[in-house]
Write a structure and sequence with these properties.
The protein is of the alpha/beta class and about 290 residues long. It contains eleven helices and ten strands. β7, α5 (about 145-155) and β8 (about 160-165) form a beta-alpha-beta unit. The structure holds NADPH dihydro-nicotinamide-adenine-dinucleotide phosphate (NDP).
Length: about 290
């Protein structure tokens, strides 16, 4: 069984470079997906309070029988719980749902552009959880370079991770450069471009990076699937990818990306698919009511 390469966060904590995402995995699907992934060798699971499946993630972990110390579990604070006190309460709920004493990574799910004090308060709460040893690392999600710098003006701890939309149609070159300057690890959500398929009306909607000749030709060359080529592209870039699947054969396929590599020229060929257009919400304007009922 392969083991996942590790990425070192700015506080020394090591995070697997590939994990299982569970956004849109129903509670019924989540337990077997997590159990299957852990059996296949995955050691990182990415959930969020907003996904409403933290309990099932915890159940999948327990059924795997693995030692807690082998696993890296991430969850995220939703916007409705921003603010110092609310964030601490929400963290307690999340770890209780997961059935864990300590979390590996806690992320602020969105930047909350219009609620600066609550956003900073939520991050301060995460810093306190880190200081108290309740979480091993903290970070953010969907933050722009400007938002990261604004947060850092008020924060004591540089986020370990910024989890952002990143796939061949939206390669986030400038953001990755900002992360390198600031010492933040990039984590790719929708790494195989899921959002362009399940949100057909978004920019790039209805297209699939998995069908691009630049990807399918490399898949044929290496005897791999398009998803494996795209996931390998993330690994070559040194970022962490968290593909979601609830199908056992795809969960296994998505993890089998450590036995081949892409040349710099092949990485650049996939980079060239970039459209510069994100499909997810704009971090500059996102706010709680952008998401409807949550
Ligand atoms: P992905 O790029 O992981 O794509 C997932 C989609 O692709 C699903 O429809 C899945 O279907 C399908 N799929 C999975 N594997 C394959 C394969 N090998 N070949 C073909 N199709 C495949 O998109 P997500 O948006 O789900 O992103 C992954 C994770 O990132 C999420 O689960 C979540 O943890 C995180 N995320 C975070 C966000 C944030 O704001 N922080 C936003 C969005 C996602 P099936 O399950 O049927 O296999």
């Amino acid at each position: 069984m392969s083991t996942t390469p590790l990425l070192k966060l700015n506080n020394g904590v090591e995070m697997p470079a590939l994990g299982l995402g569970v956004y849109q995995s129903t509670p019924e699907e989540t337990v077997p997906a997590v159990e299957t992934a852990l059996r296949d060798g995955y050691r990182l699971i990415d959930t969020a309070a907003a996904y409403r499946n933290e309990k099932e993630v915890g159940e999948g972990i327990r059924r795997s029988g693995l030692d807690r110390g082998e696993l890296f579990v991430t969850t995220k604070l939703w916007l409705s719980d921003y603010g110092y006190d609310s964030a601490q309460r929400a963290f307690d709920t999340s770890v209780a749902n997961l059935g864990l004493d300590q979390l590996d990574l806690y992320l602020l799910h969105q930047p909350a552009a219009l609620d600066t004090e609550e956003w900073v308060g939520a991050y301060k709460a995460a810093e306190k959880l880190l200081a108290d040893g309740r979480v091993r690392a903290i970070g953010v999600s969907n933050h722009t370079p400007g938002q990261l710098r604004a947060l850092l003006d008020r924060a004591d701890v540089v986020p370990g991770v910024n989890q952002v939309e990143l796939h061949p149609y939206f390669i986030q070159r400038e953001l990755r450069e900002a992360h390198d300057e600031l010492g933040i690890i990039t984590q790719s959500w929708s790494p195989i471009g899921g959002i362009t398929r399940y949100w057909p009306h978004a920019p790039n909607g209805g297209r699939s990076a998995l069908e691009e000749p630049a990807v399918t030709e490399l898949a044929a060359k290496y005897g791999k699937t398009p998803a494996q080529v795209v996931l390998r592209w993330h690994i070559e870039h040194g970022v962490c990818a968290i593909p979601k699947s609830v199908r056992p054969h795809r969960i296994e396929e998505n993890f089998d990306v450590f036995g081949f590599s892409l040349t710099p020229g092949e990485v650049a060929t996939i980079d060239a698919l970039d459209t510069g257009l994100r499909s997810g919400p704009d971090p500059e304007t996102v706010r709680l009511d952008s998401f409807g009922r949550r």
